[in-house]
Amino acid sequence: MQAIEIKTNAHNGYIKLHVPIQEKEVRVIVIWDNENDNEKNYDIKLLKNLVHQASKADVFSTITNPVEWQRQIRNEWQ
User: Fold this and answer.
1) Distance of CA 7 to the CA centre of its chain
2) d(CA 73, CA 69)
3) Could you tell me the residue ranges of all domains in the chain?
4) In this predicted structure, what is the pLDDT of residue 77?
């Protein structure tokens, strides 16, 4: 596993990523600082919709043994 960190700004709820990779599966983690925010800076309905869409994408269909898959993922971190 390889990782790079790219810092960018969101504009109207969207971010652009210019990632120097070829056609490979990637994982995206979005982290933002909200220490000074009194309000949430996201729309929970849109997030729920995205999760619903992701579940329909069937991205985990190739995993036959979820417990073993999780063990393999954890072993990559060591």
Assistant:
1) 15
2) 6
3) 1-78
4) 73
